[in-house]
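Try it yourself: sequence plus Q0T, in.
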Amino acid sequence: MVTGTVCGALEKALFTWVAGLPAFVKGCRWKNPGCRKFLTPIPLTNESRKLQYATDSPKRFATVNTSIDSNDVLLQTDFPQLQLFASGKVRDLYKVGADRLLFVATDRISAFDYVLATGIPQKGRVLTQLSLFWFEFLKNIVPNHLATADVSQYPEELQAYAGQLRGRSMLVVRADMVPIECVARGYLSGSGWKEYKSTGTVCGIPLPAGLRESDKLPEPIFTPATKAASGHDENISFDRMVQLAGRELSEQLRDLTLRIYKTAADYAETRGIIIADTKFEFGRTARGLVLADEVLTPDSSRFWPKDKYRPGGAQESFDKQYVRDYLESIKWNKQPPAPALPPEVAAKTSEKYVEAYTQLTGRPLPG
Ligand code: Q0T
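Structure, out:
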């Protein structure tokens, strides 16, 4: 993993707030030159252009076919009637009324910190359907922000976009987000491995000597992080989290994070997938603390195929290996503009995302 981040290799949703943040935070991403890479506009391919015209301008393009095929790749959402709330490398959030948000997973993919020019067919549906699977699987441990993912139950104002939304979106309850990334790690990888090599600790937590890269930890650990101004995550100690969020909440989130991770990772292992680490986000609603964001997807976690697990070095990524191999093969300098992917690389990557869903759930991807 190449990024200069502290907690960095975990796939983070780096998002630009559009509303609801104090003024001092607003704009800092835009001023920081180190952040420019997140602002690279995603070029509109013919495919996405077609999609936008076909779906979003029914009045001006009254004669075009507005039906959306579930095989269409969605690179950008464009819902002119809705107010954008936040937008990340992969996900877009829109305001719906006073207390709901529309959470949309696009087919965008990032690698080496950049969103690529090519979308991955089915990726948004896999992210959404996997999150829904885990919300259901975990609901007795932790309540979540899901209102409904049944598009026919969405408010009237969203029905015009039903074709784009089906399978890849959720209506969620708007929460007061806790500004801490709650990370659980069961294996030594990425920034954790880097820190361990130099200090014998991960996020300040001492670990036994002699561990190798990708080794399983004696016990999963909680390694919180905050979103730094650079857009990258910055690992913090538990004591620092207590200063920021208070002791009671911090202990509650730590215990919840570890419980959720252990429950999910134990299950995933029975399905042949190692969840090496993962990130959760929590929010407060009228009903109390809820698990928010996307959960236990390949974008928020490291998934490793169990049958190929070989501690003592870096592991292949379940989902992004073809993409990384391709980008290394063309010797991309990892500066914008991010390249496009050959169709066969996108297709094989799509298969890996779908495989992650079917392998974990034992069910075909719905739709
Ligand atoms: C949020 C209020 O996923 C994020 O951004 C991607 C575009 C991070 N994020 C989450 C929120 C949520 C959620 N999830 C919620 N239920 N209520 N805010 C904002 N950013």
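One thing you can check immediately is this: The pocket of Q0T is lined by residues 13, 15, 86-88, 91-93, 101, 103, 145, 172-175, 177, 283, 292-293 (CB under 6 Å).
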